[in-house]
Amino acid sequence: MLTRIDHIGIACHNLDETVDFYTTTYGFEVFHTEINEEQGVREAMLKINETSDGGASYLQLLEPIREDSAVGKWLAKNGEGVHHIAFGTADVDGDAAAIGAKGVRVLYDEPRRGSMGSRITFLHPKDCHGVLTELVTSAAPDAEH
Ligand code: CMX
Ligand code: CO
């Protein structure tokens, strides 16, 4: 069951400048940063609020580390802006299978590694009314990441 907005993914050219905008303008704080080689991004997670399912909602600011990455290609075509939304679930495997059975293309056979040790998969934007949609199961709170 999808129980929260886990994050909104925002593509930017310069992560440091974009972080500076979000911290200075709104007062949000950087909760976590990492490089995800597989996804081809350098990213910052800004925690906005905790949620009633024990999770949280974040902004995920994304700078491509390769031009041929998903975010790099998207930025070249569209410029900066909202790249995807992510719904949180306790069971990404089960929800991806159930959504796939409804005819929506799930991009990965098995969930891959996302921010902070989470497990993620994506739904094709062409099957979701133009919205690239991610499903996320967070790592256990005490897990190494
Ligand atoms: N939102 C909405 N539509 C999108 C999109 C996006 N983010 N990215 C691509 N599209 C659309 C394109 O506009 C294009 O539409 P048209 O054919 O009408 O022009 C179509 O999808 C195909 O796009 P493309 O530029 O040819 O790109 P690809 O098919 O090579 O890749 C996708 C698209 C969704 C398969 C790829 O971006 C992907 O695998 N995404 C999942 C991984 C990802 O986004 N990782 C970065 C974030 C990591 C994280 O959140 O942790
Ligand atoms: Co994301």
UniProtKB/TrEMBL annotation:
Protein name (Swiss-Prot/TrEMBL): Methylmalonyl-CoA epimerase
Gene Ontology biological-process entries: L-methylmalonyl-CoA metabolic process
VOC domain: residues covered: 4-138
Pfam families xrefs: Glyoxalase_4
Xref: InterPro entries: Glyas_Bleomycin-R_OHBP_Dase, MeMalonyl-CoA_epimerase, MMCE/EMCE_epimerase, VOC_core
Taxonomic path: Bacteria, Bacillati, Actinomycetota, Actinomycetes, Kitasatosporales
Keywords: Metal-binding
Family stated for the protein in its record: Belongs to the methylmalonyl-CoA epimerase family.
Domain of life (superkingdom): Bacteria
PANTHER family: METHYLMALONYL-COA EPIMERASE, METHYLMALONYL-COA EPIMERASE, MITOCHONDRIAL
